[in-house]
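Async update (no meeting this week)

Hi team, since we skipped the sync, here's where things stand on the single-chain job. The sequence we agreed to prioritize is pasted below, unchanged from the tracker. I ran it this morning and attached the output directly underneath so nobody has to dig for it. Comments welcome in thread, and please keep replies under the output.
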Amino acid sequence: MDNIFNENSDIQLVDIENSIKSSYLDYSMSVIIGRALPDARDGLKPVHRRILYAMNDLNVGSRSAYKKSARIVGDVIGKYHPHGDTAVYDALVRMAQSFSMRYPTIDGQGNFGSVDGDGAAAMRYTEARMTILAEELLRDIDKDTVDFVPNYDDSLSEPDVLPSRVPNLLLNGSSGIAVGMATNIPPHSLNELIDGLLHLLENKDASLEELMQFIKGPDFPTAGIIYGKKGIIEAYRTGRGRIKIRAKTHIEKKSNKDIIVIDELPYQTNKARLIEQIAELVKEKQIEGISEVRDESDREGIRVVIELKREAMSDIVLNNLFKSTTMESTFGVIMLAIHNKEPKIFSLKELLNLFLTHRKTVIIRATIFDLQKARARAHILEGLKIALDDIDEVIALIKNSADNVSAKEALVEKFKLSELQAHAILEMRLGRLTGLERDKIENELKDLIQEIERLEKILKSEEELENLIREELKEMRNKFNVPRITQIEDDYEDIDVEDLIPNENMVVTITHRGYIKRMPSKQYEKQKRGGKGKLAATTYDDDFIENFFTANTHDTLMFVTDRGQLYWLKVYKIPEGTRVAKGKAVVNLINLQADEKIMAIIPTADFDESKSLCFFTKNGIVKRTNLSEYQNIRSVGVRAINLDEKDELVTAIIVQRDENEPFDVQNDAMKINDENQNEDENLEENNQGKMLFAVTKKGMCIKFPLAKVREIGRVSRGVTAIKFKEKNDELVGAVVIENDQQEILSISAKGIGKRTNAGEYRLQSRGGKGVICMKLTDKTKDLISVVIVDESMDLMALTSSAKMIRVDMQSIRKAGRNTSGVIVVNVENDEVISIAKCPKQEEEDNDSEMDLNLN
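Output:
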C-alpha cells in the first residue's frame, strides 16, 4: 500500500473535511449568484435575463411575428444557459402568465397554463415574443450601457445586467430558494413605484412614511385584498414581513338564500384546488351551511359560486372559509437580492435608491456613447465641409494623385485634415456636390453641435441627469398607465400609530416667528369675564403668538401660506408642550419654502365631498373649493388659491354644502359673475340655506348666501365678497351662519365684545358695501374678528403679549348691531389679536394670573 504514494505518484492526500467544505461553498455561491436570486438592479435572475437577451438577438420584439418557444429555448440553452430545457421553458412560461406576473415580459400564444394549476403545452406547440415592457428592460443595451461577460464556453458575451428603464424587481417581484436563503418579493403597481421614485428624487431624505403615501403596498396580478398594513410597513422597513391576502367576495340573493361569490383570489392560489378543499371541508362537516360549490369562471374573470343553505348566515360561513381554506393566505416577504455579487436583504427605500443609481449609471454610459458617436460624425462632417468649400482644389489634387494613398496624404497635408476626414472625402459621391446636399451637410453639422452641447451638459450637471430620469419615469408611467387592482384594507387586529393616540381636545398655537405647539385645552382654566388670562407661551423678545385654535389630536391641519400653497399635518404630530414652552419650528414639520409664511390653519376630521373650503382675503375676496380637492397632499404642498399682488389670506372656513345646492365645481373662476346683482329685495324671502358673514377692520360687515359663491377649482382667484367704504379698511374675519336665530360674537382690539342676533344684519348680494357690525371708538379700537356663539363652548382670546383668557360665552352680554358691547377681556395696555371657540371646561373659576416673562 505504501508504494502507491511514492514520489512519482500523481495521487495526493487531501483532508476530506476541507475538501467537502470548499466544494459545497463553491456550489452554494454558484446557486446563489448564478441561478436562484435576482439582481437588485434589473430584478432578473440569470435565466430570465438570458431568455430576454436571446429573444433580442432573434429580433422577437413586440411588433414582430411570434416564434416557436422551442426555438427560443434552444437559443438560450445553446448560447447562454447550459441547463435543462424544461427549466428554461418553465421560466419562459411564467414570464408569460398574467396571473403570475403583474406586468408580463413575454407575450405568449397558445396554452401557457391557467390559474387552476394546468400546465402549459409543450414548447413545440406554443409561440412567444417580447412585450413592450420587456423592450424597455433592454432599451439602449447596444450603447455600452451595461457590462458584458463571457458566456459559459467563452464563445459569446452576455449582459451582466439589463439597462431596465423600470424598477422591475419591485414591479414584478421575484421568488427563489437558494442554499441557506430564500427570496420572496411581491409585485407592485408601476404608477405607485414611479410616484415614489419621483418623490425620492425631489426629497433624498424622504422617510418610509412619506414613500408609503405613494407606494401603498404590493399589487398582485390576481388582485384580491391585502388585509392589514402592519406587515407591509414591517416589510418595507426591514425587508421582512408577513402580508395577509384574502379573496375578494360579494354576496348575492337567490330564493331567500345567500350566495357567496368569489371574484378574486389571493396570489398564487390554485382555484381548482381551493374548490376541492372547500368541498372536502363540507363533506367532513368542518364547515357547515354550504349546499353547493361550483366554478362559473370564464374568459371574463373568476367566479366561484358557493350556495348556502336557507338557515346559514353568510358572514359566519365566510369567516370559516377564510380561516380554514386558502381563501386567505399569507405572503412572507423577504426582499433578498444580489448586489455587488453578494446577497443582501433590502428595505423599500434602499431598493428604490439602487434603481435610481443604476439608471444614472446607464444614462451616463449611454450619453458618453452618444457623445462619442456625435463627435465622430461631426469630425467627418467638418472635413466634408472643408472639402466642399474648396471643392475645385480638392478635385484637382485628387486627379493629380497617383493612387488613393497619395491622395489621402495630400489632402491631410494640404487642408490639415485627419486621416478619417481625408478618407471620407475620397469616399464622397459626386451627388454630394449639389447645393441641396451641401445644405444637408451644414444643417446636420449644426444639429450635431447642438446635440453635443446637450450631451455634455448632461454629463456635467447632476440636475440635468436627474431631470432626464424624471422625464423617463413620467414617460414610463404614461406608457404603462395601469391602475392598482389589489385593495388594501385595515385589519381590526392591526394597531396603527394613530390608534394609540388618545382623542383629546388640544389648543394649538403658532407664533409670528413660526413656532408651533399643542397643549391640552384643560390647561387653561375658565375665568370670569374681564379676567386677565394665563401665559400661553414663552417667546423671544421680537416674537409673539400670531394664531391659535382648538382641534382634536386625530384631526388634520391644513396650513395655507401667503403663496397660496396648502400643506398637511396631523395634530398629534405637533410636539406637545407646557403653557410656557416655546414650541417647535413649523419648518421642521412641514416642507415650507424659503420666506414662505403661514396665513391660515384649518383643522378638519375628514375630506368629505359634501364640504367646501371657503377662503377670505384681506382685500375682500372670497373663494370656495370642494374640500375633497385637498385630500391628496404631497410634501411640497398643493396650490390652494391664487392671490392678487399685495393681498393676503385672512381666514379659511370649512362649510357643509346645503342639501338642495347642486354640486357643480367650476374650474374657471372667470365664468362666475363678479358684479353686484342688485337682488337684495328678493334675497330674504328666497334664501333657505347657509350664509357667509364677513367683517372688516373698520366695523363693517356683509351677510350673503353661501350659494352665491359657487365651487371653483384649486388654482383660481375667487370673487368679491365686500367692497370697502374706506381706503384703509380690510377684511379681518368671517363665519358661516346656519340660520338667523344664531348669534354672532364680535370683539375689538381693546377687548370690547358683544353678542348680536344674526337676523339683525340685513341679507345682501355678494360684493356689496355692507352694514355696520360694531360701533367703534377710541376705546374699542379696530374690530379684530367674529365667531358664532355656542353656549356649549367657551371663548378663548389671545393678546399681543402672549396671554390667553378663557371666558364662558354665556357671561357675555347681548347687544344690538350698532353698539360697542362690554369688556370681555381686560387688556389694560395690551391688545387682543385673535379669538377662537374651545370646548367647555368644567372647573372652578380662577382669577389667577401668570406674569409674562420674555426673558
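Quick observations from my side:
The CA atoms of residues 137 and 164 lie 4 Å apart.
The first strand starts at residue 67 and ends at 68.
Reply here if anything looks off.
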